[in-house]
Queue: 3 jobs
Job 1
Amino acid sequence: MRLGRFALLTTIGASIAFALACGPPKQIEKEDSGEADTDTDTDSDTDTDTDSDTDTDTDTDTDTDTDTDTDTDADTDTDTDTDTDTDTDSDTDSDTDTDTDTDPPNWPYDLAHHDGSFESQVGCSSTCEFAVRFTPTSYPADLLTVTIDTISSTASEATLSIYKDVMGSGNGPTGLTEEVLELSIDLSSSPGGDNFVFDVESAGVTISDGDIYVAVSENNSFMGIAIDNNSVSDADDNWVYAGAWMTLVDAAGGKAALEGDMGIAIELQ
């Protein structure tokens, strides 16, 4: 705050009147010259000059201009530019990509219970059907391909089907509606085993909820489906139809070579 100038003028208007107590004028005895030029000259030119040039002009220049430069321009450089560099660019790099890798995949992905290597096979030479249950990782899911591994199979006219279990009950295909994808597929293979991939995307199978069972059946010749005996399987993943649906474990009747995961896998998107 700028302070105004203060002129402290102490006007000492003291017209100091000196009473020149000189007393009555002495009678100087005149000498012969008679000039009495004693020049008392009571002009009293003692020059008291009560102008009192003590110059109380009290311009003592205290200069209360108080230019102490408080500079209330608040140049205390608070710099309210608030350059505290909050940098609200908020470079937290939200990048809203938030790694949607954690979301269910929408690219083609495979589902299989086996590990890709097979130690034995299960088959039949009369009317029979084998099915494997799959649960998509996200919904809806479109069925793209079915892969079947066989060992020493002579089946050349097998049928490829699916069963949808929207409830995901795990009770096998019993009571579910069969949807045929392919008729007369050739699954004949060498003793060393063979791998067959079937493109079924054109069938337009979409899984909206629950599970899907992929099944293959043969009516005339021997169909040998490869089995991975080393994988740990859930009993309700592998099913066999021989007059009625039952788990592969039940159908094997305790024969370890017939227990495991069948060589059926799928690709979804």
Job 2
Amino acid sequence: MTRRLVIPLMVIVAIVSGCASRSQVAGQDGLRVSRNIGVAAVNLRGLQQFRAATGIRPQIVEIYMAVGTPLERTDAAAIVAQEEQPLIQLNPYRVSLQSIAAGHLDRYFMSLGTALHSLRHSVILSFAPEANGTWYSWACHRTPAAVYIAAWRHVRRVIARFDKDIIWLWDANQSFPTACPLLSRWPGAAYVTWVGVDGYLRTPGATFANVLAPTIAELRAATGKPVLIAETGVPDVPEAASWLASIFAGAESVPGVVGIVYFNYFDNRRNYILEQDPPALAVFRRDARLYQTGKGS
């Protein structure tokens, strides 16, 4: 977990690769059903810099936006113009979930659904992420689970009236001792396409197996849905390269994982920017391509 920026127009990149034959395109608009590789928290200029540094062309660009923000104020249209996939994290920062569930913001969600449909491109959409954590107004110990579920389902129903091709992502934080029970805020299989897991390797002894794998296993067993590692990263410390290698190896080995999104940002506490950590960048360049092609298995 890292505290999300409250800037509504932040960009995250994710690169999507193949499944079955490990390179075969099997989804909408060039999406592949597995081996998604990503990077988080770059603007459009930073995206170009990321491509140059890693040798990877992203296929998905994730945008953080606050409820109430018009889609036109984001980079969604520019992302589609570059033949990349928008992934939108829709965050109700200063809005109560009770009001959303009651339909008081339906005009906004209907407008958003219309705008998403007008892109003429499939979109991945996540609403109110990391709700099993403790740091957001919609999260553990701050909003009742029943209210969260009602709001999530309501947003899904309203937007789906206007755009039926959305991949709906329910994004949880890795489990930790003071978190809510992981599935206490699960909207239900009928409402979710993929599940997401956010988690970082940044403490001594951290590995994919002890940070991300337990939460992934629980979600897979309970939901049967594909899992996207929707936010992960390693800070600029001597262990970074080995931690990053662990993430790729782990994602390669766990059934049902459809990809990795890397958080490429300095968050005022830790520096996750790959371009500023040559050993970690070298591992990313190597292992991202191996993961994409399936040659790392």
Job 3
Amino acid sequence: MKVAVATTQDLFVRGGGAASHAAGLARALSSLGHEVEVVQIPFDWSSKVDVLRQAYQWRLLDLGEAADLVVTLKFPAFYVRAARKVAWILHQHRPLYDNFDLPEHSAFSSSHPEDIAIRDAVRGWDNRYLGEMRRIFTNSRTVATTCCGWAAWRRTRGRVSCSTRWRGRRVPRGPSTRDADRSWRACARRRAASASARGSISAAS
């Protein structure tokens, strides 16, 4: 099966939890015999005025039938167009959610009407495009708590896992790439076995 792992790229930054997460998932799926591509578009997290433009670049990307399954990770990768996609949300755009109005963590403030407009636009797009997912997973209780208030979660009709676990396995943490690879491979194998029993074509849906 052809699987695309869609996530953002931080230019000239090496390592990091999100990058390891995407690479580990790709390796695990490849070890099961799937053809995997990691699809990335750079995203400048420091840019306040370009948030909407950068986010909508993902919506303009149409993978169509090129991949049998698209797994989206970081905001705004879940805006991508695809015939079949699931979201594994690492985090939303926090400056517009839990860090909004916190000057030490976010440049956005309710005292600026344009900031409110950007926040409302992003949250509206999140609701709309996450509603296209066949399943939604999160990697933390904080993200799950935030997401559970989104209309998108209701539109997935129960196909949502508000937990820190991927099919019973806790998301690996820490610097050990070897341990992460083992965990991802175990997770992928468990999902493949479950999907096969259900007659599913996907090891990650």
